[in-house]
Structures are given as structure tokens and as C-alpha cells.
UniProtKB/TrEMBL annotation:
It comes from Candidatus Eubacterium faecale. Signal peptide: none annotated. Residues 239-430 form the Carbohydrate kinase FGGY C-terminal domain. This is Rhamnulokinase. One of its GO terms (cellular component) is cytosol. Keywords: ATP-binding, Disulfide bond, Kinase, Nucleotide-binding, Rhamnose metabolism, Transferase.
Length: 473
């Protein structure tokens, strides 16, 4: 029997999940949960990394008190990082990817390297939040080391300096073919090459802390979630990892770095199993989370279940928004922003909380279809099933709408896909299971997966065409 500890840090919360593996079964439970909220510092948006480390160490101590573990690993959101000085200390709290300092950086970088060339070098969707642009905005000098957030956590615990491949591939500085840094792209940041750590494969041992082996599983939470996708080996399947962000895509044997792929804003991220996860980053439950927060500020304490019910009771297809509209990228005033955008587009305006919520649900479902069709067009094959992973899989309305919009069955679950993927990769590193395919078989046999079939496809087709016209797609 092996016992492992998976830390999964998302853009709004973190948790520690303790797992036991025996007789081809995984039993797991959350033993610690903590908030992960950005902090304001001199007009900038940051992560409170010192606080995160305190909470992580609490989780480790809890696991030790519960009988100890053989290993532990950490996954987080992508792109963000910390910088270390000559003494090995953080020069400042890490920037949050939503900080405004990078808004105009892409245009500056394009003067040195055109977007087509940048995409053909990295295969990553060009977004101002990418590490490349964040580093180009840095003002610090005399930097000795650069580490992504999950690698920074490992460094703080055991001193290991490396970049796990999946988190490194979110940076827009990695070549997906060589799986190493692209020197020409790195030079665009103005930072010296030597601060970048060596890139290591997923499921690589890194060191020890309190006698527990630390493993670099997959540092990027999305890639952990994809590892736990309960698909069969030859299945033509798509995945939708749905949390604060939605990442929709499929596994490919080689990157797709054509001009069309760039124009469609698709990314080639390295998967933990050596495959390319060809995907699109789109807004996920961020809008729902922000609506909940804003409603609460108005004295309306809705649960997520309450919000789902309000949406169900509301008139369908009243109006649409683009979930990725920059107007919705910053927190605050989300109900008003949605109403204003609908009015500006000449649509009917949502009159109730339920109508606002339903507008978001339907708009997300339409965006899923839009992204899926783009992916199919670029890979020249049909995707026949959608695996909806993560927190969104617990939302029946979202799952049903995704099935109706895309016209293919949606397999929802596991909800804990990210933690399970982290656990599976630790078991691979420990030698308990052979590979990710073996892990997926375990997931298929042990996790409850709900199937949602498409309905009213003619109606959804008609509304999808309306959505395209409204958004000029």
C-alpha cells in the first residue's frame, strides 16, 4: 500500500488530498482547505506566497499526524512565478496573472518578433497573462533564479531548482518539439537566460521534506486533470477541464502550429504523458463565481445550487455574451457588466438574477461548441465524446447544456480530476502503476461518471447560429 499527499492550488482556493492506493483502488479524502485570494500591493495585484507556504506546511503536518505519507506533489494554475535574489530569497510576492501591467506588452514584443513567428516557435495562444509578457514587464535587476509557482513551492521545501515540463509549457517560452526553452523567445523578456531552471519530465523525484519524498508530478493543474480523464485508449475524445478557467481540447501526438491554429487562438501544451494537449483557454466558472460574490454583496446569499435553480426557471436564449470579452476579465460589478454588454449589442436585457445567470450558462455552452469545432477543424478529425472534468462536472445544468450545444455525449467526472491526476503521477513515480493509461483504467473502474446525452439539437443549432451572428464570429 502507498500513501500520497496531493496539493492542488487553484486560482481561488487550495487543498491537500490524502490518498491510499492498494489492490488497484484509490481511496482519497480532503484533509485541509484554504483560501487563495490575491492581495493588493502598491497598486499591483499579487499572490500571498508566504501565506500559501504556511497553509501547505499545515497540510503536510496534518498528513503526518494521520499516519504519514510516502510522497507528495503540487499542482497550480499556470503562467505565474517567483523571482529569487542572490541569497535565494523571493524579491517580492509573485504577481497575479490578472495584474494590469502586461496589457500592452504583446504589442511591444511583436516589434521584435511578429506574432506568427512567436506562435510557430512556441505553439501557445498569445495572451497578455503569459509568462513571456510578465517577465518582459519585470523591473527587478540582479535576479538569480526564476521558478513557476509549483516549482517555487518545491524549492521552498527542499531546495530543488527545476521547471516541470507541463507548467513550463504555459509560459510561451518553451519549444513543444524539443521540450526545452527557446533561447530566441526567452531573449524577448530582457532577462538573462541563466535564470531559467532546467526542464524536467513529469513524475520526477525532486527531494525530501520531513522524510517525505517530493515528486514533481505535473505542475500545471490542467495537465493533472487530463491525466485523470477516464477515456479508453483508442477513444476519439475531447476534454473540458472546468474550474475558474475552462480548458477544452484533445490529446495529439504532435503540435499543430499552423497560421490557422494561431488565428483560432489554440495552444499546444505539454501533457504529463508526453502527448500534446491541443486546447483553447476560455473563461470558465469565473463569471459564475463573480456573480455569486456580487450578489452576496447585495445581500443575496445564493448557493451555487440556488443559482443553478434560478437559471433553470428563467427564459432560455434571451441573450448571449462572449464569455471571453475583456469587459469581464476583472472582478467587481459583474451583473451590471453583463446587462450593459447585452444592451450595447442590441439584445434583450436580462431583468432578473436568474436571467443573468442563465445568460452565462448558455453563453459558456455556446463557447464550448465554438472551441470544439475550431479544434476539430485544425486536427481534421471528429471528436465523439466530451469528458467534463473538475468542479464543473458537479453542475448538471452546465453538463446538460454542454451536451446539447456540442451535439455529443458529455461524460461528467471525476470532480476531483486534478487531485486524482496528481495522485496517479505520484504512483507512477513510486512504481505502483506503470503509466497514465493504467491510472485511467483505475479511474474508470472506481469513479462515478455521469453521462449527459444531447437533446433538442435543432433548437441549439438555430441558437448557435444566432450566437455567431451576435458575436460576429
Amino acid at each position: 500500500m502507498s500513501r500520497v499527499l496531493a496539493f492542488d492550488l487553484g486560482a481561488s482556493s487550495g487543498r491537500a488530498v490524502l490518498a491510499e492506493y492498494a489492490e488497484e483502488k484509490i481511496k482519497y479524502k480532503e484533509i485541509h482547505r484554504f483560501e487563495n485570494m490575491p492581495v493588493s500591493e502598491n497598486g499591483t495585484l499579487r499572490w500571498d506566497f508566504d501565506y500559501l507556504m504556511r497553509e501547505i506546511k499545515k497540510g503536510i503536518d496534518l498528513a503526518i499526524d494521520l499516519g504519514g505519507v510516502d510522497s507528495m506533489a503540487f499542482d497550480t494554475w499556470g503562467v505565474d512565478y517567483g523571482l529569487l535574489d542572490d541569497s535565494g530569497k523571493l524579491v517580492s510576492q509573485p504577481f497575479h496573472y490578472r495584474d494590469k501591467r502586461t496589457e500592452r506588452l504583446p504589442q511591444q514584443i511583436f516589434k521584435q518578433m511578429p506574432p506568427e513567428e512567436l506562435y510557430s516557435a512556441t505553439g501557445i495562444q498569445i495572451m497578455p497573462i503569459n509568462t513571456l509578457f510578465q517577465l518582459a514587464a519585470e523591473k527587478h535587476k540582479n535576479i538569480s533564479k526564476f521558478l513557476f509557482i509549483p516549482d517555487l513551492i518545491v524549492y521552498e521545501l527542499c531546495g530543488a531548482v527545476s521547471a516541470e515540463q507541463t507548467i513550463a509549457s504555459t509560459s510561451q517560452m518553451l519549444d513543444p518539439k524539443t521540450k526545452n526553452w527557446n533561447p530566441q523567445v526567452v531573449s524577448l523578456t530582457g532577462m538573462p537566460q541563466h535564470i531559467l531552471p532546467p526542464v524536467v519530465k513529469s513524475a520526477t523525484p525532486a527531494g525530501e521534506y520531513k522524510g517525505i519524498q517530493i515528486i514533481k508530478a505535473a505542475g500545471h493543474d490542467t495537465q493533472c486533470a487530463v491525466c485523470a480523464m477516464p477515456s479508453a485508449q483508442q477513444e476519439s475524445a475531447a476534454f473540458l477541464s472546468c474550474g475558474t478557467w475552462s480548458l477544452i481540447g484533445c490529446e495529439c501526438d504532435a503540435p499543430v502550429m499552423t497560421k490557422k491554429s494561431m488565428e483560432d487562438e489554440l495552444s499546444n501544451e505539454l501533457g504529463a504523458n508526453g502527448k500534446i494537449n491541443y486546447l483553447k483557454n476560455i473563461s470558465g466558472l469565473w463569471l459564475i463565481q463573480q456573480l455569486k460574490k456580487d450578489f452576496q454583496a447585495q445581500g443575496k446569499t445564493y448557493s451555487y445550487s440556488d443559482m443553478e435553480n434560478l437559471a433553470k426557471e428563467s427564459k432560455p436564449f434571451l441573450c448571449f455574451i462572449d464569455a471571453d470579452d475583456p469587459a469581464f476579465s476583472l472582478p467587481g460589478g459583474m451583473p451590471h457588466k453583463i446587462i450593459s454588454r447585452c444592451r450595447e449589442m442590441g439584445q434583450a436585457v436580462p431583468q432578473s438574477d436568474g436571467q443573468i445567470i442563465r445568460t452565462v450558462y448558455e453563453s459558456l455552452a455556446m463557447k464550448y461548441r465554438f472551441a470544439l469545432l475550431q479544434i476539430e477543424d485544425n486536427i481534421s478529425r471528429r471528436l465523439e465524446k466530451l469528458y467534463l472534468l473538475g468542479g464543473g462536472s458537479k453542475d448538471p445544468l452546465l453538463c446538460k447544456m454542454a451536451a446539447c450545444s456540442t451535439g455529443i455525449p458529455v461524460a461528467a467526472g471525476p470532480a476531483e480530476a486534478t487531485a486524482l491526476g496528481n495522485i496517479l503521477l505520484q504512483l507512477v513515480a513510486l512504481g505502483d502503476i506503470n503509466n497514465i493509461e493504467s491510472g485511467r483504467k483505475i479511474i474508470r473502474q472506481s469513479e462515478k461518471i455521469s453521462i449527459y446525452e444531447p437533446e433538442n439539437t435543432d433548437l441549439w443549432e438555430k441558437q448557435y447560429n444566432r450566437y455567431l451572428k451576435l458575436l460576429n464570429k
